[in-house]
Amino acid sequence: MSDRPVIRVIVVDDHPVVRFGLAAIIGLQPDMAVVADAGSGEEACDICAHHPADVVLMDLRLPELSGVEAIVRI
């Protein structure tokens, strides 16, 4: 077990296969953990308010609320 801090990541993508694939790859890293995932910009804003993270991996092309707009809100 390492004493290194874990990088907490939130994955946001409207395509479930991409979202779950990225989460699986990140989950393989010993110093990273996916703390939440979202399928829309609105959901990303809600999740970020409740789950502390170091990194948000955001798809910029999301329907309704774009990734760029979500980043501004977050």
Key terms:
three-stranded parallel sheet, 23% strand, 74 residues, alpha/beta, 39% helix
Notes on the protein architecture:
There is one protein chain. With 74 residues, the protein is an alpha/beta fold. The chain contains 3 helices and 3 strands; from the N terminus they run E-H-E-H-E-H. The chain has helices at residues 16-27, 41-50, 67-73; strands at 7-12, 32-38, 55-58. The protein has a 3-stranded parallel β-sheet with strand order 2-1-3. Helix 2 (41-50) runs parallel beside helix 3 (67-73). It is globular. It starts with 6 loop residues before the first strand and ends with a helix. The mean pLDDT is 94.
Short description:
With 74 residues, the protein is of the alpha/beta class.
Give the biggest sheet.
3 strands, parallel
Class by alpha and beta content? alpha/beta
Shape: globular
Q: Provide a count of the helices.
A: 3
Tell me the strand order in the biggest sheet: 2-1-3
Walk me through the topology:
Blueprint: E1 7-12, H1 16-27, E2 32-38, H2 41-50, E3 55-58, H3 67-73
